[in-house]
Amino acid sequence: MPEYLNRFKKETQEDIIKWANATKESCEDLDPQDVFLDPILSVIEWNDAALQQRRVMKANITNFIQRVNGVQPFTDTDAVTNVGAQSDSIFSIIDIRIAPKSQIAADIMAYLRRTYGQQPNVSLGKFYIIQAAKKNQFEIAEYREVF
Question: Which of 29, 34, 38, 140 has minimal Cβ neighbours within 10 Å of its Cβ?
Fold first, then answer.
């Protein structure tokens, strides 16, 4: 496990690795230098105490994110039961015809900041954007005070 993923919980680290492996497999036939073809990953580390204190429903935020064009929740499929569970904190973002993935991520952060970014209140969590640069190498950007 790459050391720079240590900032995430073990389960999140494993999901990031699974996502990166699946992404690279789906883009095997493409030019490896064309980073615009690969999706990016949005990871939210929730502050559950702040959600409860501010009476914010996590489902309202995740439902908004999932409805954005180009965004798909990460689904972890259990190998034994073959049942997939959608993540409420990990989302894959791809380019769409009208917007690149980086703009989609920026728009999501802007919405969260406008809607939930009340400065005197405790933050609801941290927002990360992750791009798989090479096998087991990631570019990670952390955005604070998003919401």
Answer: 29
pLDDT per residue as tens digits for the range 69-107: 999 998 876 656 666 778 899 999 999 999 999 999 999
Task: State the CB neighbour count (10 A cutoff) for residue 45.
Answer: 15
Q: What is the pTM of this model?
A: 0.79
What's the token pair of residue 95? 């380019």
Q: Sheet containing 125-134: give its strands across.
A: 71-77, 84-93, 40-46, 125-134, 137-143
Altogether, the residues listed in the chain come to a count of 147
Burial-class residue 59 by CB neighbours within 10 Å (0-12, 13-18, 19+): exposed
